[in-house]
């Protein structure tokens, strides 16, 4: 039994080669978006809340790191409390650079506006603000 646990522990123990930072881990001087408090470079997914809520997915960015970054993707609104339609095209514009006290080596966008292709059922607005800026 001890031999099995020892071998299992060897398999589960982290290896130094696997402990590399994620490819999009922010480096000093880079622009980031604080995605629910986590700094990300060119996020592919942006969450609008910590629990069941709509989120932006499959984002592709243009002009990242400039004064105005534009991302295009899909708004996924398929949670139990979310309004239909469940999937819509979305464009997000990030503007205005600031440096945060938390990590002054990174720059973040302070404004985020999302525009969806169709409004929520029963609504007319297709434009809304997302949290942006320092956490």
From TrEMBL:
Residues spanning the signal sequence: 1-19
Q: Which domain of life is it from?
A: Bacteria
Report keywords, A-Z.
Signal
Q: What is this protein called?
A: Secreted protein
Q: Which organism is it from?
A: Nocardioides conyzicola
């Amino acid at each position: 039994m001890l031999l099995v646990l020892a071998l299992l522990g060897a398999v589960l123990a982290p290896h130094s080669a696997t402990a590399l930072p994620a490819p999009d881990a922010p480096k000093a001087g880079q622009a980031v978006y604080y995605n629910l408090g986590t700094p990300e470079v060119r996020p592919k997914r942006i969450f609008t809340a910590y629990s069941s809520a709509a989120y932006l997915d499959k984002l592709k960015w243009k002009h990242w790191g400039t004064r105005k970054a534009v991302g295009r993707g899909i708004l996924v609104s398929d949670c139990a409390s979310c309004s239909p339609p469940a999937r819509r095209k979305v464009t997000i514009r990030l503007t205005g650079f600031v440096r945060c006290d938390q990590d002054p080596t990174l720059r973040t966008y302070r404004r985020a506006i999302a525009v969806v292709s169709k409004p929520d059922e029963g609504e007319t607005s297709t434009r809304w603000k997302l949290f942006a800026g320092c956490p």
